[in-house]
Amino acid sequence: xxxxxxxxxxxxxxxxxxxxxxxxxxxxxxxxxxxxxxxxxxxxxxxxxxxxxxxxxxxxxxxxxxxxxxxxxxxxxxxxxxxxxxxxxxxxxxxxxxxxxxxxxxxxxxxxxxxxxxxxxxxxxxxxxxxxxxxxxxxxxxxxxxxxxxxxxxxxx
Length: 157
Fold this sequence. Notes:
Blueprint: H1 2-21, H2 27-32, H3 41-46, H4 52-57, H5 66-101, H6 108-139, H7 142-152
Helix pairs in contact: 1-6, 5-6
């Protein structure tokens, strides 16, 4: 029973960076949440930054300059390279964890050490993602940020 719980917990931890990398715009999920439910920390952070996809989608509406576009594109390419490297390492470390858990008697210390490696990689991925979002925001003018914030808000009936 403990092994099953541990495996499920580890799988949830390993899957979280993949979810974290997906664009945060999932209106169908937000619509299902009750109005009084607290927002997860990720959603609270996303209210103050702008995903590159949102900027690209509304570049004409916000008057994005070519120099800004070039800067954001460069930052996206740098982040993508870091994401790719971290994902490869994450999958490798996850395979090692899986092998450790397949043993008849699980070495708890080895598993926990391996989990630390995986969590470090997840942390690296999340920091890279947040850094990208910050650099995108800092590339935009105050007016562009305001326009994007308004464009992102759902229309009120």
